[in-house]
Structure formats: structure tokens, C-alpha cells
Amino acid sequence: MKPIRLMTYRRGSTLPPLPGNSLPNSSELFHVYEQTTGYAPLLIVAFIDEKPVAKLLAVIRKSNRLFPPSFIKRCELFGTGEYFDNSLSKDELFGMMLEHLTEEASAHCFLIEVRNLPTALFGYKYFRRNRYFPVNWLRVYNSLHSLSPEERLEPFRHRQIARALEQGVSLKRAETEAETEAALQMLRRNYSSKLRKHFPDLQLFRLLSSQRNGQEDANTFLVEYKGKVIGASFCMYSNDYVYLCFSAGLRKTYAWLHPHVLAVWTAITHAHEQGYKHFEFVDAGLPFRQLGYRRFILSFGGKQVSTRRWFRFRWSWLNKLASWLYR
Fold this sequence. Notes:
This protein is of the alpha+beta class.
């Protein structure tokens, strides 16, 4: 086999034309990260001669959580890359790109996190070889291709949605800049009080919403009552998958209208109408805690799958301690 050459790209102006149709590893998302405050993209591309055979996109950003603190940078990978040559081992290619990325990112950030693995065991030996440690996690997703969302919905949720619609609540996809901005401002206000939750600069949402290229990359949804936005959600789209990234509602002020439920519901029904096969909630939480949020999202008829997230600290002593605790 010809030798594989790895290249690192940090600027959009240097990116070559690359194949692929996965949004989490796309050049489009690279450019969005590059133009978003507090974000720095890092793209690893594997070549044989001048032919790209795989790519892996990561982003380095500032944290706004209690741990790690806000002045610390972290590197995040969503998925395990995209591959273009079936004759090559996907695992081995991933291992090479992971090692290269780890060397590049460790010089600039305190923590590296890899999430949304296709299976719990994917790349296990390569993560261990590069001194990552695993934490058990859960993914929650709804299948949209076999049954309709209404058929999967729990009865009490169905009643809540029906009553809210009867009382004049309207659900819609943001069509104008003003509608998008109103929804994003509502989401930002809601997430600003959640110190553990990261909420990006609004420029990321605006740019994603404008990156169409003949297909949906992202959508913002609104829940309105008497002309006021009382709920909102934001989704990203890639192939047959829809990812619910953020959702919120004024569930105290308008508790009887269940705006947080409707914000999720309008995103799910739109995904089903557009023919997507899977709808995934991006962060379902740790598997050993009975999170209220996880019970909430499961009420829409989804299923939970056990998986892992892999982490690596820059400090070797802390990494060894975490590896021992989560061995």
C-alpha cells in the first residue's frame, strides 16, 4: 500500500477541494467555525499521493462551564470522521488521524473530547494508545422511517400538544432574519443561566442557517403565542440524520402551554415531513444519573443507546488519575 500522508488545515483559504457529504466534517462547517468568535477549526486530511482518503474535523473553543473553567480551551470532535476509500481500514485511518490530531490539539487546549461514536468499541485501542479515557454515555434518538412521530408519542404528551394548539399556539420554521434572530435571542437567554451548558456565539447559528448549497444544513424553529416567542429550537442536518442541538421554552411563565415540549415537537415533525430517517438529541447526559431531561426527551418515543465519550487532559498526572478512575 502506498504511504498515507496527513495534512493539518487551520485556515479556510488553504483548504483544497474535498469530497464528502457529512456536515460535521465538512468544509462548510470549517468556514463557519472560522468566522465564529471563540472558535478555531482544525481539519486533518489523509492523502494517498494527491487523493484524499479520509478527513476529521475538530474545533478548539473556550469553555463556559464550571469545569473546565472559562479561561481553559477544549477541543471537540463530533463523530469519527469521513472516509472515501473502502479498500482501506477505517479503524487504522482513524487511529492515524487521532494521533496526529492529539499532537496538534494538545499544544493549544487543556481537554480533548470525542463524542458521537458509531459504536461503543470503535477505535478503542487507538484511544487507549493515545492515553484517552472513556466515560459511559447515552445517545437518544427517534426513528422516523417506520412509525410517524404521532404514533411514537406518549399519550400525555399528545394531550399537552393538542391542548396548546387549541389555545392558539403556533409552530413554525423561521423564514426571515427577524424570526431567526428572535428565536436565537430566546435560546441565548435561556442557556445563559445554565453554567454547565455551552451556548455558542450567535454568529455560528446565523452562518449555519445561511449555508444552504441546495440542502438544509440548519433550521431554527419558533413557538409563538399571541405574537410572542415562548419557545425555540435549533437543528443541524447531515445525510439522513437530524441533530437537535438546542431547545428551550418559557415553561414557568407559560407552563400551561408547555412551550418546551412544542419546541422539540415542531423540530421532530419537520424532520419527518422532510423525509429524514433519524432524529437525535445531541446531549442526553450521563447514563448513571436519572436526569429529568432524559426522561423528558424519551417521552417523544425515542430509544436510548449506551455508548462512550473519550477524553484526554493535557496534564499527564491528571490524565493518569482519570484513566485509573474510569478504567
